[in-house]
Amino acid sequence: MSPEQSREIALWRELRETPELLEEIQRQTGDELRIQHALRSRYPAELVRLGLELNAVRLKASGKFSRGNQLWLTRRALEQATSEPVAQYKARRFGRLSNPDLLIHDYCCGMGGDAIALARHGRVLASDLDPVVLQLAAWNAEVHGVADRIEFAQADAAASDVTGRIIHIDPDQRDATGRRHLRLEQVHPELTILQEMANNCRAGAIKLSPASNFGGKFPRSEIELVSWRGECKLATVWCGELGEPGLWRATSLPTGETLAGDPLAAWPETTEIQEYLYDPDPAVVRAGLINLLGESLNLSRIDDADEYLTSQRLVASPFVTGFQVEDVLNRNEKQLRHYLRSRNVGIVEIKCRQIPLDVEKLRRSLSPRGEESTTLIYARVAGKTQVVVCRRCDVQAGAPGDSSA
After folding, report:
1. Banded pLDDT at 98 (limits 50, 70, 90)
2. Which residues constitute the domain of residue 15?
């Protein structure tokens, strides 16, 4: 541990032992400079700065964690952390190993979010290179009442032998400047080490950004993409006893609906746009399972180069957002502007997937005026760009295949 890290931990401990400062900060309103000046008259300046920063980060953490206002974390640790419901979902798969005394090695544990979730399914040895975040993670384990289930240790995951172990690893995808890398060749531990871990562990999970280049990198593992309320949040490489080699999976949370298979195993037909158009869940898109989803829901594609699906009857599923089609127009802004004004449309939702589009510039150009609302979906249809005028369907997401007239 460096002298700087020792001083940083000491400052965090001082803040933890000064709860009245955090209570004062929470009560304060108004100009931050005025607040800082008032607090510095009674507390050390460094402590005030850290307290204000922690309070700001805790406010953001409340959107990801049930006890966000009690956690100990930095801005960077929060950005890297898995949200609580997603971490809990991921941790539940470790419960398949059916051993309450199993030891799970959580590498690159950060603020401890995954370790805390994993502790519900076994004992955890959590490690990280950074002693500061390790201390914060230990306090967070106390906040969640699982400190007796987790042991913390400073260690470099890249130097760890995982042979025969049950592992979870969240490789650091940011460099010293905080810049995020999406190429696995630039993360720590590097790609070759992650591949060795996947092949040598007894069972485990490697957490990755859904935007990273994981395709084809882990052929002996299962790849799962997870979305939370329509936003793709996580890619997990499931290894050993916890994964099925070569399988791709998409899971939609909070429903927990899952779709799994071979991306090349299904070939739905391509048709013209029908009564309903569907925007698929991004986890399905990133997993390459659009064709499998179309086949399972009896939906057709509108173009091989776009992911939108269509059907004559309305289908409800957690994996799709449905729209009732009103018109299909050519891409002509002047004609579209006239179309919207003739129908008193003033509120316009604009969506696209494969069509390059500056949405805000287009919105300004259309200059919609009126009281009605509509959705414009720019899509490739039979090789051409078309504008689908539609309305969101007010249906509850049911199990795949549920439909109504």
Report:
1. confident
2. 3-61
